[in-house]
Please model this.
Amino acid sequence: MKIKKLILFLNLILLANFSALPQKVSRLSNYSVHNVGVLKEASLSLDSFVSRVSPEKLADYGLKNHSDLTKITFGTPVPVFTILNNEITFNSVWRVPLQVDNDYVALLTVIYKDDNYKAVDFGAKGLAGEISNKRAFNILGMLRVYDLQKDFLIERRGEDSLAYIPIPDNKKRFTLSQIIDMINEN
Model:
């Protein structure tokens, strides 16, 4: 119990520091401390999600046939952020890529609430493909911008620089200031 409280305390400190300087790259990287817990929950919960998929719906989840279910491995969890009061805020959500033959085929959504990780959703074949296509980039997370109904991948560009790649990718990169301007114009 003390370890959970310590982790929660450290995460609150990280969140407070992160909110103060939203463009700081190092602060975005700190959410990987949760990867073990996120992946453990994904592993424990995957069967309950995929067992509900009928054979005719497998393609909707990026799977060709039932044998693909035995090939699933997990990619690196992608922390999800949003914008609140013109600052990036972590919302205790990760999208965990499911890989088959080294391709991301779907995402499992894991949340952290009340000191517990919980898988809550499975799917997002198109988004999984977009993330898979960007694995060569240094992706730190995903930014959900509800005001624009748009998602962006957060890319590290240098020591203290970030770029936001729209999904689907239109070959353009944005700064956080540009995204906030788009929200204010909307």
